[in-house]
């Protein structure tokens, strides 16, 4: 049971009912909210974002390890994005079988041939971890993935501490309330965007949030927008359709959308194939990539976050290529890697296939997709891998060792869901932000964290996918 959250408190049905009502009101009061599914485009129909009634236990050492390595992950992603030869080699097999990755890579090649217009690079990423508990020793921090595109929930995560502090006070757990950490993720992410906007050098230019037509998770984004407006930095929300209809480049490659100059394009849409509903959407992406606007992420950084790159980085000697005089940094990063295996055609890939077919419950089959709900486990892994094992289609996937965290107990608050104590699994995300101008690193920081928790019955899926809920770490 969670340190500081006794079992008898969770078992007291009347108290839990009272605390749940307080918690839901507190979530809305503090802005931990989403648009309802019934009307995702109306701000008048709002519900609380799903979250845990209590904060979940996280070992202090593991938490600090994940935060400490984040600036090195920022550097790694940035250096990968600058290495065109590495990206070419790492993704060569994938682009032959995965049409979406191939289309992204085509844009990358066109920008390379034309020459990068903007020397300022802005990276906002989130490295996600689970605590592997395969032995009786302390849990090991193992990376699930790194998100370089639309790393979400920095806004809502920054609001969660006040909610959990209030719940614990009402529950009579004043000491535990004082152990809830502040979380500056929204401010830190906005600081990096503001720095890039300032380096662009035009007070009239806007930060453009590139968003979906239908957006439930708008309040997470509004947190960042409000932070920028507080700095007198104008923001606009635009879609691929808006860019397609009204976007253009002037002779200096400045990007204009709806008649306004764009200093920064912050992509919150465009990481899944279904985000590109027409050829015009792809042309809009290329237009933005060719422009003088700072892109977050630019196409190179988008590709640096693919699953195939994650797998290649785990091969011997690869990390050292990016940290040639910092062996300790490479070791610090490698310590967070779970087992990653290639499925390329050849003896090594064949061995990976045999390993997974012999013990499918020990592995995860990952396609080159973001957004949650894409990974394959157990019987699904076995079925798909048997279908593709003898063909090039297997190149669209990587194989990863399954991370097995120890379950914790909590109560998940979702609309119309019963208040029951569930065995849960936690995933820790760490937000990183960096800005580089040419060869000069202007900013490189770990700016906050995110804890997501889901019932142990679910293998995959995040908050946006409707599986996980927001949480806070209670360090012990």
TrEMBL record:
List residues binding ATP.
145, 307, 366-375, 377, 400-403, 427, 452, 454, 460
EC number(s)? 6.3.2.3
* A cellular component term, taken from the record's GO annotations: cytosol
Spell out the SUPFAM superfamilies in the cross-references: Glutathione synthetase ATP-binding domain-like, PreATP-grasp domain
Q: Which residues bind Mg(2+)?
A: 145, 147, 370
UniProt GO MF annotations? ATP binding; glutathione binding; glutathione synthase activity; magnesium ion binding
Against InterPro entries, the record matches this protein to: Glutathione_synthase, Glutathione_synthase_a-hlx, Glutathione_synthase_C_euk, Glutathione_synthase_N_euk, GSH-S_sub-bd_sf, GSH_synth_subst-bd, PreATP-grasp_dom_sf
* Metal-binding among keywords: yes
Per UniProt, the cofactor note for this protein states: Binds 1 Mg(2+) ion per subunit.
Please give the name of this protein. Glutathione synthetase
**Lineage of producing organism:** Eukaryota, Metazoa, Chordata, Craniata, Vertebrata
């Amino acid at each position: 049971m969670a340190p500081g959250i006794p079992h008898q408190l969770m078992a007291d049905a009347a108290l839990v009912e009272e605390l749940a009502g307080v918690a839901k009101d507190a979530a809305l009061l503090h802005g931990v909210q989403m648009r309802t599914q019934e009307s995702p485009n109306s701000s008048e129909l709002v519900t609380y974002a799903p979250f845990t009634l209590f904060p979940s236990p996280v070992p202090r050492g593991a938490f600090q390890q994940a935060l400490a390595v984040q600036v090195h992950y920022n550097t790694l992603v940035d250096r990968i994005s600058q290495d065109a030869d590495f990206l070419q080699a790492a993704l060569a097999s994938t682009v032959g079988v995965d049409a979406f990755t191939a289309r992204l890579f085509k844009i990358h090649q066109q920008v390379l041939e034309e020459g990068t217009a903007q020397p300022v690079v802005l990276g906002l990423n989130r490295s996600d971890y689970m605590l592997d508990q395969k032995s009786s020793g302390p849990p090991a921090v193992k990376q699930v993935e790194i998100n370089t595109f639309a790393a979400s929930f920095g806004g809502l995560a920054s609001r969660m501490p006040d909610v959990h502090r209030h719940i614990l006070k009402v529950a009579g757990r004043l000491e535990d309330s004082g152990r809830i950490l502040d979380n500056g993720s929204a401010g830190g992410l906005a600081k990096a965007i503001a720095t890039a906007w300032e380096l662009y050098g035009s007070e009239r230019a806007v930060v453009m949030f590139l968003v979906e037509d239908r957006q439930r998770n708008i309040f997470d984004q509004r947190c960042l927008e409000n932070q920028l407006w507080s700095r007198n930095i104008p923001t606009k929300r635009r879609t691929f359709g808006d860019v397609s209809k009204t976007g253009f480049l002037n002779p200096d490659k400045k990007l204009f959308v709806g008649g306004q100059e764009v200093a920064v394009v912050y992509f919150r849409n465009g990481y899944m194939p279904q985000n590109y509903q027409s050829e015009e959407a792809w042309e809009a992406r290329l237009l933005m990539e060719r422009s003088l606007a700072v892109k977050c992420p630019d196409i190179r950084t988008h590709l640096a976050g693919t699953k195939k790159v994650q797998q290649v980085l785990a091969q011997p000697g690869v990390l050292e290529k990016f940290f040639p005089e910092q062996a300790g940094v490479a070791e610090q990063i490698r310590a967070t890697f779970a087992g990653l295996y290639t499925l390329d055609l050849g003896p090594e890939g064949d061995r990976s296939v045999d390993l997974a077919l012999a013990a499918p419950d020990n592995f995860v089959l990952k396609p080159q997709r973001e957004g949650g709900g894409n990974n394959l486990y157990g019987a699904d892994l076995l079925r798909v891998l048997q279908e593709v094992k003898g063909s090039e289609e297997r190149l669209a996937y990587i194989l990863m060792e399954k991370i097995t965290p120890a379950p914790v107990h909590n109560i998940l608050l979702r609309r119309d869901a019963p208040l029951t104590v569930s065995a849960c699994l936690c995933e820790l995300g760490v937000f990183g932000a960096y800005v580089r101008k040419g060869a000069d690193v202007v900013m490189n920081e770990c700016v906050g964290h995110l804890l997501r928790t889901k019932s142990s019955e679910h293998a995959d899926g995040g908050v946006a996918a409707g599986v996980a809920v927001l949480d806070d770490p209670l360090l012990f």
